[in-house]
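Standup notes
- HV: blocked on the assembly model, inputs below
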Amino acid sequence: MKFDDLKKLHQKKYRQQFGHFLVEGEHLVLELQRALTRGTLASGSVTLYVSERYANFASPFEKVLLNDRQMSQLSDTKSPQGIVALVPLPEAPTTIQPAGKAIYLWQVQDPGNLGTILRTLAWFGGFRCLLSPGSVDPYNPKVVRASMGAIFHVPLELDVPLAALPDRFARIGCLDLHGESVVADNFVAQDCFVFGNEAQGVPREALSAMGASAFTIAGQGAIESLNLASAVNICAYEIQRAQG
Amino acid sequence: MKFDDLKKLHQKKYRQQFGHFLVEGEHLVLELQRALTRGTLASGSVTLYVSERYANFASPFEKVLLNDRQMSQLSDTKSPQGIVALVPLPEAPTTIQPAGKAIYLWQVQDPGNLGTILRTLAWFGGFRCLLSPGSVDPYNPKVVRASMGAIFHVPLELDVPLAALPDRFARIGCLDLHGESVVADNFVAQDCFVFGNEAQGVPREALSAMGASAFTIAGQGAIESLNLASAVNICAYEIQRAQG
């Protein structure tokens, strides 16, 4: 890819146009190499762009040396780490109904929240993440960074409309301020778990129409709500705990 | 307080010198008023600084009108909301051993993590939060904002040395990558739960010396670690779940 095009990958529309995203920093590149080893990265078509100090970095990927000015243009941060990988966007999953529980996030906005959620889902394993239209792009550099590499390990589906869920999942649960406790046996029996975004819940009419069951994480009411990522973390924990 | 001193409260040393901190935005001010109602706010010695558009804001607090230039100096954000409260720092708890479980955070650095943790602890209730020396100041505007007002509801103790824990707590648990599962009955039996920071665990020698028990949140190993706030969230959930 031409260098001028590489720089454009900080924007979603160019990531989609070129089918690639950027991954910055040694830690994330090492996670990428682990994903390659585990077979969760689609192909070997990764290119590393490195500063002088990473010229001898051991890697199965092709390396291209950049000068400091070029590196700072490619970097998303004020202090470039000196190593950036160009990674192909994963292809959409080919199976309609893969194994594991689905976490559906409705219009998630905060990159840090999405990154933290992916990190938790990767930690527990057995989850995939579905994003509604209007969600933050998971290949946004801030999400990739907050995920600490988990984005290479969690199956993702983008632009999944809420209305498409009933055709794919027999039992749909929704996290709400009112509902059955997540401790109930019925919770883990759901196939897909729907979460509203940072500011508002999922439209109730749509949920009613699809016969979704409402669940809640019981609290004592001192504050209005849990952080979105906290709610997903707790549900993911509860699901894997209940599954034994 | 003089206006020139107010502006200094963005820095920790002045917050400590003047014994006050700033709380910005309508949502946080409303939470502050709820804390007053619930009796968890020490006194009525809160002053509100408002722009013209909040001149008629209904509040039990004394109001001082600021012009836009003054407000932007007082604000921590690029787009000032037009309402900032001056709040006295809470006094240190007077009882040595109050009720509830203690969450001890060792050198927590990220303001967003601490804010999210406080939000979860406030959600569940029955927790207090102890911070080691070298932790981020919880009255830092970023922490206050991320806590969404939870900081007014969770008892806090600052600068608590790790070595002071054994004198105060009979059973100390520590979250680690290796240890007994948090699902075990023994977990909720602990009085104090120790968490390392974002980058490293608590020094093992110190933990061994105090006879702390190690606990772990079981994962599948695709990634190195959980986010700190996620780990605390899950433990707080598990504790309240196990307590029924």
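- HV (later): unblocked. The longest helix of chain B spans residues 228-242. Chain B has two domains: 3-88, 101-242.
- Next: hand off to the docking folks.
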